[in-house]
């Protein structure tokens, strides 16, 4: 059992993780979740990223296998309904979007593990990061490590949950992309990935597409600026 399943959302972090996995594992598959995103643009970004990887990186393309998209629209029933409205003030205070589904990352990793089991893939790679988003408790290193134990016990497997971005910030994530795939990869990620909470693809900035105002756009803009500032001229 070898190979990897990468959680590919369409954002900067998961695209970087895909490149990371392609430099390490011979067989790499991807998984995404349709959870009734307000913006289909996130799923469309996934397709563009996969096309870009295949076209610009022939050495990686041969390792890149099946893309799985699971229908998890049931999550819509606990994201923007009365069930969570009582939490709105608290979540806004945390800087999290109102569509936040508690434990969503645990749900995604658990579904990914079930697919990895069926596909005989040992590594499950995700772009979770506790450096920038302390508000998401299910993205913390301790949570993911505990979940790895749980999944291995519950499925009688030896999965490894890889989290290459866990302890680095957004500027370092751009740097990692540069190290993995040079300027071509930085440009692919900059232009094709989408991090914006509003799914805005109409406005293009130096750091990529987005509304330029939501917390995700602000984080991405700051990270890209720091990456550029630290780059040798
Ligand atoms: Zn935005």
Defining traits:
12% strand, two-stranded antiparallel ribbon, 233 residues
Task: Please tell me about this protein's structure.
Helix 1 crosses helix 8 (170-192) and helix 2 (41-56) crosses helix 8 (170-192). The protein has helices at residues 12-22, 41-56, 58-61, 82-85, 88-94, 104-119, 141-155, 170-192, 215-230; strands spanning 4-7, 28-34, 64-71, 123-125, 160-162, 204-205, 208-209. It contains nine helices and seven strands. A hairpin with a 2-residue loop joins strand 6 (204-205) and strand 7 (208-209). It has one domain: 3-Layer(aba) Sandwich (Rossmann fold), CATH 3.40.50. A five-stranded parallel sheet has the order 3-2-1-4-5, with helices on both faces. The termini are far apart. Bound molecules: zinc ion. Zinc ion binds at residues 196-198, 200, 210-211, 213-214, 216-217.
